[in-house]
Amino acid sequence: MTFSDEGDDHSVYYGQGGLIRGDKIAETPVRGATAGGNSNSRKRRRVSFSQFASYAAIPVTAKHNLELAQGDRAYLRTTIKFVDGPDKDVSMPDGGCTMTGEVEIRVGTNDTAPLFWDAGEVSFGDEISRPQSSLTKKPRLYVKAPNTFRLAVGHKIGIAVYRTFDITHEDAGAPISVRLEDVYGPKHQVCIYTGEVTEVSEQSETFCHSINTFEGCSGAVIFLLDQDQEDAPEEVADGMAVGIHVGGLDTTNNLGFMLK
Question: Which DSSP string corresponds to 177-245?
């Protein structure tokens, strides 16, 4: 996603986001006869993107991506970028917001102080319900894990990141000797980074994870991987969305907010 400040300086900020699948709004069209009119032919027509079923789509990102600098009250324009299609603007009611409140993400002990983060970091946009929109097509959308699912330490997770911007060693918190493209992949390509849940807060509102990220990954949808999910119930499938990545805590832990 890109976030454009429509004020005097027209600043552009980079982050991540996704689209959560809602109710179905259009069936998959009946695919025509097979090639040559022969119903027994194994050769099928190639299905165009427009022929996928359509569902309501709800944009989501980290709320701090939508925050403007203090004192600036300009409109913030949010645009979703795809590797295989045109950019699309989406409506995010939190655009231009100010972060308020805190949530405890780690309780204090006799030796350490409690750790807090800005509250309400998951920000949803206005629902998109136009069947003809490419944003409502099934391949674009994440399916949220059911409310019965409980994320736990050890669950294997991942994020999909698409960037059109360069990253620096400072962005990644990496030594200058590291070749960043070997770790994070190239620009203009979807890259999947994986890790696992390392900690879940007592209120089950936030969790820590070990996915290797850089500045510009905030807002990425965190999803379950298709391996070693020993205690996941049958109705939970790999690829289901469970949270939103919001930032780094230290050299080994990043923070996610539960997707509810």
Answer: TS-HHHHH--TTS-EEEEEEEEEE-TTSSEEEE-----TT-TTPEEEE-SS--TT--TT--TT-EEEEE
Would you say how long the chain is, in residues?
260
End-to-end CA distance of the chain: 21
Of the candidates 171, 176, 241, which has an alpha carbon nearest to the alpha carbon of residue 212? Answer: 171
Which pLDDT does position 71 carry in this prediction? 59
The pLDDT assigned to 198 comes to 94
The neighbouring-strand residues paired with 4 are 12, 77
Highest mean pLDDT among 1-10, 23-32, 159-168: 159-168
CA atoms within 13 A on the CB side of 102: 7
Distance between CA atoms of residues 84 and 20, nearest Å? 19
- CA 167 from chain centre, in angstroms, equals 19
Query: Which of 247, 256, 239, 246 has its CA nearest to residue 21?
Result: 239
- CA 77 and chain centroid, separation: 18
